[in-house]
Write a structure and sequence with these properties.
The protein has about 375 residues and is an all-beta fold. Helix content is about 0%, strand content about 50%. The protein contains no helices and 27 strands. Belongs to the glycosyl hydrolase 130 family.
Amino acid sequence: MPDGDDYLIFRPDQVDLTRSPLRHGVDEPTHVLGAFNPGFTRLPNGNLLLMVRVAEALRDPVHTECARAIRWTPAGYVLDRHPVHRIDMDDPRQFALKDRNPRLLGLTSLSWLLPVELDGEGRNIVAIHYDKAIQPSASYMDYGVEDARITKVDGQYWMTACGVSAERHCTAMYRSANGLDYELLGIVLDHQNKDMILFEGKVADKFMALTRPLGECYFAYPEDSPWLGGPSINIAQSPDGLHWKPLDTPGIRARKGTTSTQRIGGGSQPVLTPEGWMMIYHGVEKRGSVGIYRSFWALLDKDDPSQILRLEDEVPLIEANPALTAEIAHQMYLPTPVTFTTGIADAGDRYIVAGGEADLACRITHIPKERFR
């Protein structure tokens, strides 16, 4: 059982790859590059659920002068080959085709989702549900399904995930009545709208969600503005959870004078407190090729979430903790500290917060509710 209030709960070596969906087509040896960034919710039985992103990669990704990428097809998984003299391989997570504008990428792993059930305190693994794992199932996710976010609204579990393909980089929606068995409802947001997560409750009878559109072009604010241009957290609303309209008002933006200005994006599902909607998000400090990821928090108005009541963007709520990954440091591949909050659950006088650590493992942090006052 983990000690203390901050610990790793699930690691790459705990994944049984003999039960991986990639066994349907990929016969060569693979390993888990990361088991991280889990969707997080409380099940009807009181236990907690991690919907873990398993990034599975070939042990020998380069063969006969070709880099190989795993791709899903309706008939099973296949390997695509890219001559190494035509690509750049500076990032262990991906490679880029040379002399292409816009930039075209290939992944060194394919991600699928593994439900891991914890006890109600989030300290022990109760079951690993390989029979309920979620793998790519449509052409718009043939390079993987990534980064689940789960929210319970009106008794239903809504889960967003990123579909990765050459067709598009999109947000897909799943729904479940019991938190374990999910039905794919299709695409809800199109190209590169990352970190979508629904509010845990409706506002004026409408679903609300955080979004984070990405693009290749951003515009500068005036010099006297407190804001910086770049990726930001926006808010959208929907009558049914499937059809979304962005709010006209901007959401949370990178602010001058803080360290985390490279990009920001959603983390936990916003939960309603007496003070308003509390949410945890990530901010990235520019450092190297990846940056330093930290978690911060904000409070939004309960009736109009576009109104930011409080923004704690200077002192991090959660930072990467090298002591947690010391035992698996030999598996780390990122050069800078990364922690990435992905979900929250109420536990009375505290919140249980789940996330990814070093893009490698799943981390649990218990935070007293007093910290958010």
